[in-house]
Structure prediction request, 246 residues.
Amino acid sequence: MQRKLVVGNWKMHGSRPANAELLAALLGARPFGADVAVCVPYVYLNETAATLAGSDIRWGAQDVSAHEQGAYTGEVSAAMLAECGCRYVIVGHSERRAYHAESDALVARKAQAALARGVTPVVCVGETLAEREAGETEDVVKRQLSVVIHQLAHCAAEMVVAYEPVWAIGTGRTASPEQAQAVHAVLRAQLQAATGHGAAMKILYGGSVKPDNAATLFAQADIDGGLIGGASLKAADFIAICRAAG
Ligand code: PEP
Prediction:
């Protein structure tokens, strides 16, 4: 079994004192037995890098521009993230798809921009409740992923995929381990068919992962770790989830 990966998504939360406290707690709780990273707001990247440098905890961002550079006010490029030492960047999070109208094609271009600068994209896919109830889950996630696979071409095996059912994000409603595993198996098969390296690729589950459900989710054959939102802001909860992955 491959080593698991747990990525915290702080979203638009944090402050200097709160971040310092959280990161100190994480550093003090190592080793986890799993790979761990935190994806923080852009403005905290340098401080996070300074705090985590020399440790085995990685850091990253929550979005990236599809453009290399230029007159794109407010955007942050993959080269800038690389300069800040980012190992990961989340792309295609459902909050960005929903509130910033990000299309599958834009998400794919962002993933490509990240990889071109050596930053691993954590590509989020997931269905809405209406899509699940209409029996469209498999079609939706396969469509979202296929656009990225096509764009990345021979580099597709280098991405990390996160299955995040939209109805489970921040709602306290988690996909059952069986529901999550079923979708992960579909994604694994799609990655294997496209890249030939599906078994070695990481597919994370995200959506209301908590200390009390993490171990069961991570025990599923095709769940290689988690993308953790709310619980990544509470040191004790995030540490417990990271330990459950170890
Ligand atoms: C997320 O934001 O990626 C997420 C999974 O959030 P939560 O864990 O709070 O559901």
